[in-house]
Design goal:
single chain, about 300 residues, alpha/beta, eight-stranded mixed β-sheet, 11 helices, binds guanosine-5'-diphosphate
């Protein structure tokens, strides 16, 4: 389970404060040292950890007093608040266009789970009463178009493709026209993934962006790659600009470092998390629920 070891360590560190009637600065300092180590072991970005601990310390020794809580409980509340802040406080939803269709561009590196997640998102939106259209713009990976068609078939959402001989910008443009004619109110474009970020890929994504002016550019990241995922997010944010992240494979990520770092490093929210391979295993990301999962 995600955050399993972090949860245990944080609860252990903070548990020591719980029963105390009075907290010395030393008590807080010792607890914060353990919190810091636990976050680093969970693969949270170093700078994020440093800032986090500093903020908690300032608030904890800064006499933020609530009569209803013991000093130990207050520190726990502050850690909970700051964990929540770290992940963006409140849930970030998809921003739908005022006049449909809403255009969502999915991007990410190969293997991150982009195609699967594209299908999952279409399925989720369909359940909410939308009429999505999937668009196959990955013309480079031989099986990509077929894979999207299979996924679309499983969730019963149509897939627009023009094979692999057309330029992805033209495909995206034609798909939007097609979607408008057919009453599709959400158009989800599956773009090409590469093994690494390269200029050519970024240029292509930029060209698609310029052509279709998406309402949302969502970056799909593999949680299990930890700080590498954070670096990929930084890079996409700087080169292309993204609206949010979908973090996949959180079901297999015991540490949770990327979930705790992405928002703080890129200032962009995690909008959904992938919790399994099945096409209904995509969940909205709730920072507050995640924080309480960590602190128990
Ligand atoms: P793409 O290359 O980015 O399009 O990646 P795919 O959609 O082909 O996914 C790569 C692999 O990750 C597949 O085996 C998926 O089943 C798997 N996958 C995707 N999302 C999740 C998830 O949330 N949890 C788990 N456990 N596996 C996932």
């Amino acid at each position: 389970m995600v955050f399993e070891s972090l949860a245990e360590k944080l609860q252990n560190a903070l548990g020591k404060l719980k029963g105390k009637g009075k907290l010395s600065e030393k008590d807080v300092k010792n607890a914060m040292r353990e919190v810091k180590l636990a976050l680093l072991e969970a693969d949270v970005n170093y700078k994020v950890v440093k800032d986090f601990v500093k903020k908690v310390k300032e608030r904890a020794v800064g006499h933020e007093v609530m009569d209803s809580l013991t000093p130990g409980q207050q520190v726990i509340k502050i850690v909970n608040d700051e964990l929540c802040n770290l992940m963006g406080k409140t849930q970030s939803k998809i921003e739908f266009a005022d006049s449909p269709p809403t255009i969502i561009m999915m991007c990410g590196l190969q293997g991150a789970g982009k195609t699967t997640t594209t299908g999952k998102l279409a399925s989720l939106l369909k359940k909410k009463g939308k009429k999505p259209l999937l668009v196959a713009c990955d013309i480079y990976r031989p099986a990509a178009i077929k894979q999207l068609e299979v996924v679309g078939g499983k969730v019963d959402v149509p897939v627009f493709s023009m094979g692999d001989k057309q330029n992805p910008v033209n495909i995206a443009k034609a798909a939007v026209e097609h979607g408008k004619k057919n009453g599709n109110d959400v158009i989800i474009i599956d773009t090409a993934g590469r093994l690494h970020i390269d200029e050519e890929l970024m240029e292509e994504l930029q060209d698609i962006k310029d052509e279709v002016k998406p309402n949302e550019i969502l970056l799909v990241l593999d949680a299990m790659t930890g700080q590498d995922a954070v670096k990929v997010a930084e890079s996409f944010e700087n080169k292309l600009g993204i609206n949010g992240v979908i973090l996949t494979k959180l079901d297999g990520d015991a540490r949770g470092g990327s979930a705790l770092s992405i928002r703080a490093v890129t200032d962009k929210p995690i909008k959904f998390v992938g919790m399994g391979e099945k096409l209904d295993e995509l969940e909205p990301f709730h920072p507050d629920r995640m924080a309480s999962r960590i602190l128990g």
